[in-house]
Amino acid sequence: MSLSLDLPAPREGVLRRASDVLVRRGRLLTLLLLVPPLLWLGLVYLGSLFVFLAQSVFSIDEFSGTIVREPTTATLLELFRPANLDILLRTVGISAAVTGLCAIIAFPIAYYAARYAGPKVKAAFYLAVMMPLWSSYLVKVYGWKLLLAKEGAIGWFAAKLGLGGALEAWLALPLVGGPSLSVSYTGMVLTFTYLWLPFMILPVQAALERVPPHLIEAAGDLGAAPALVFRTIILPLAMPGVVAGAIFTFSLTLGDYIVPQIIGTSALVLGQAVYTLQGTAGNIPLAAAFSLVPILVMAIFLTLAKRTGAFDAL
Amino acid sequence: MHAHAAPLALPAVRFARVVRHFGAVRAVDGVDLSIAPGEFFAMLGPSGSGKTTCLRLIAGFEQPDDGHIEIFGETVEGLPPYRRAVNTVFQDYALFPHLSVGENVAYGLRVRGVGRAERERLAREALSLVKLAGMETRRPAQLSGGQRQRVALARALVVRPKVLLLDEPLGALDLKLREEMQSELKGLQRALGLTFVFVTHDQSEALSMADRVAVFNEGRIVQVGPPEEVYEQPATRFVARFVGSANVLEAREAQALGGPARPCSLRPEKILLLAPGAPVPEGAAVVDARVTDISYQGPVRRISARTGQGLALTAAVPATAAGVMAGADIRFAVPAGAVRAMEGEQ
Fold first, then answer.
1. Is the CB of residue A305 less than 8 Å away from at least one CB of chain B?
2. How far apart are CA A189 and CA A168, in angstroms?
3. Which Pfam families match (chain A) (predicted)?
4. Which of A157, A293, B174, B323 has the fewest CB atoms nearer than 10 Å to its CB?
């Protein structure tokens, strides 16, 4: 083969010349790429959200049911009425319980997948974690209603294991108990935990995957026993992932209104309140005020997480 | 293999027929080893030769499949890393990114329950030992490679290990910094009187720093000894080629060059280039050859040449020597005693 082969030059064309311009002017390329998503995110998404939230400074005329378009704090203050405050605290409590439970269940699974699973097992892991997300949400919730029912699989299994008494005792507890699992906060939290678990596992797994194995060895080398290595090295480094997962599980639970309707007590949660207020009641301002709450709660949550150093490893 | 004065007291580290395999690969294949207290010991070898696995066996990150390991007389098989009085400086330093430099250095003390004030004082002391005083509040990400290396060193030294293990400690540093760290490590080791065991694939690093060098190949130690001995008297073909790339001569060729009738090594820098008509040094063997390749390397020029009998020789001659062209006929002189028998070869 001759080294002095004469290659033809690539063919000139409009696209090639356009590339010349974009290569020389990198800014222009960035701008062109960003305009569509920014339009979508800025106008369609955030814009409509703010228009809706802004309704919370209006109020509703008690008699005519029409919206009074004059700024007032009355609607926002209504949130602090005992009945409404109850709804808020209940929802935040359930969300916190779901998030905590998700984190506890997700961590070992994510840890195994990140540090021990080989490529094949890892592929199976992703499939197994994602699969529940592909089936219908309603089917899953009704499935859990059957599992949790008085004559359901969980009760039957508990009885077989001789734990029927323990289940009864749990249901007899105030707050978390109820006539059966399917109409208790316990059942609601279990269902939510099942639904949102993948949203916790995946970010935690991603965070753990980024922890260099050498760091864990180094901590052991310096004298830390495994439990201490976990507390001082692994957990702090995985914390951004846990917080990311918590953002999902927390906000998804805060906004959900279907699970509490199918499973759980007759007491309302935030999502149901918003649903009835903007639907049957037509009280858009109060619905908007309720909708502000998850945003504020998440803001507080993230601030606290930052305070405790959850993002130091980022 | 050369017999060397066995360490008198309890060895700092002792391996007896240690074996470690990964699947079918015998990473460490029956290694015997004895490192004296206070020794600067180098494990030298190409990648995959088992040197790093040996270091990890001492640290406790790996457990032997067979054989016996002692650290200062204490049997350590089955002991996890956190129960061993050895500490490691990792190749990539392995600093904790979420902790400050001070907290990194104090980590081992914190784990041992040393009070805050005391561990901060000790960490400051350790940092000034490695010339990083005042850097306590920085994050590892804010440091240069050389500084990170020093933090890793301080972090390992602050817990007073009996043996300090260094995994390719200078591999990631540039040449200038590497030379600086070499003499600093050596000085530190002498000042502290600690046993240092370090792994490297860089022969010049091993020769310049270590008191003794163990050359690894395919999971075994092929030669142990002081740097001069390993360099001057390579025991096998592998050592001859790997450490300083010597000429390897078969028995017949060695004899022709005035050596013994067995496989021998000949260092390139021992070979002299004779100017035309120059007298032959007393006792030297003379080789006429044709130059096949020349490479300029700063202080020396490496001349590869081939004799009429097909013997290929590489000589390293002072770069100031008169220009020699490829294809030119030259005359080498091999001084008496330059051809050394390889005791590990038949």
1. no
2. 18
3. BPD_transp_1
4. B323
